[in-house]
């Protein structure tokens, strides 16, 4: 067996179990067989662009969501997307929706030899847990990465249980009524 065949077999084997890295940004087997627990992600796992209508496409963007002590931080790769072309919304169902459009200007007479970067509209949705303070959300773009920070609700001091006295209602009446 040649070295090339061994490398291919090792990369296939590792793609089933390993986490993602820069050389393999996703595991097709893992993503297909074990989709995310978030139901919004099911349509985003398609390995191609999905036509929505006419010339509109749902371009996939990669995202990370981590929880720190103070906040939930969502990082979305959006290189080349202008700030005015991105929206961050919070709806009444505790869902943070990040959407936008990546545009590539084509000039007359251009001949493309390769096009791997996707263009078109994109979106991601994240259902926030109960500890997320949806009134305290910030977003910023730096080096092609959008970071949305959702602060956590400040946990109230835990209250100790206490015993409540039950009062007995006094019966008032005359002896004739008794």
What distinguishing features does this structure have?
single chain; about 180 residues; mainly beta; Immunoglobulin-like; 2 domains; 4-stranded antiparallel beta sheet; 3-stranded antiparallel beta sheet; 2 helices; 9 strands; elongated
Secondary structure topology:
Layout: H1 3-17, H2 28-33, E1 50-53, E2 56-58, E3 63-67, E4 71-77, E5 86-90, E6 95-102, E7 120-127, E8 132-142, E9 145-152
Task: Give the gist of this structure.
With 178 residues, this protein is mainly beta. The protein contains two helices and nine strands. The strands form three sheets. Strands 3-4-9-8 form a four-stranded antiparallel sheet, with no helix packed on it. A three-stranded antiparallel sheet has the order 5-6-7, with no helix packed on it. Strands 1-2 form a two-stranded antiparallel ribbon.
Number of strands: 9
Q: Strands of the biggest beta sheet: in what spatial order?
A: 3-4-9-8
Beta content comes to: 25-35%
- Flag low-confidence runs: 44-49, 52-57
Which CATH first-tier class of the largest domain would you pick? Mainly Beta
Count of helical segments?
Answer: 2
CATH architecture verdict of the largest domain? Sandwich
Structural class: mainly beta
Measured between the Cα atoms of the first and last residue, the distance is 104 Å
Task: Give the number of domains.
Answer: 2
> In one word, what is the shape?
elongated
What does the average pLDDT come to? 75
Mind telling me the C-alpha Rg?
A: 27 Å
CATH domain fold name of the largest domain: Immunoglobulin-like
H/E series, N to C?
A: HHEEEEEEEEE
Organism: Sphenostylis stenocarpa
Signal peptide: 1-22
Pfam families: HSP20 (PF00011)
Keywords: Signal, Stress response
